[in-house]
Amino acid sequence: MGAKENGDASNVYAVADGKVYAKASDATGGNNVIIKNNDGSYTYYGHAPSQESIVVNKGDTVHKGQHISHQGQTGLATGVHVHFGVNKKKPAFAPQSDGLVSGGDYLSKVPRKAVPEKGQTVPAGPFSTDQDKDKK
Ligand SMILES: [Zn+2]
Fold this sequence. Notes:
- The chain is built from one helix and eight strands.
- By secondary structure, it is mainly beta.
- It has a single domain, classed as Glucose Permease (Domain IIA) (Distorted Sandwich), CATH 2.70.70.10.
């Protein structure tokens, strides 16, 4: 199922409560947004189609599950996806950055229920805090 570079099918959702730390563009991550989460960690969402497709701005408060961006293919991306990174200490997301943790491990600990709205799988959420309804 191909995600379009805009629209509901490509929505990217915040995985935690926090505040938008930066919204930028660079050669690797393309258009990206970094959120400082309330637990002090930083999460990175890269490759958005455009700055405008990142629907939050620096300083905005965001809530877990909030629509923040769209998947795209800017920067060094070989396909449409959201590039997700987590750093427990600082906003640094290069492969060997101090404080970087596995995005998969991080997400596995987030109380969640990935909501396959309209049948598509949506990376990075949205998440429900109700774990009891999860079926293994
Ligand atoms: Zn990527």
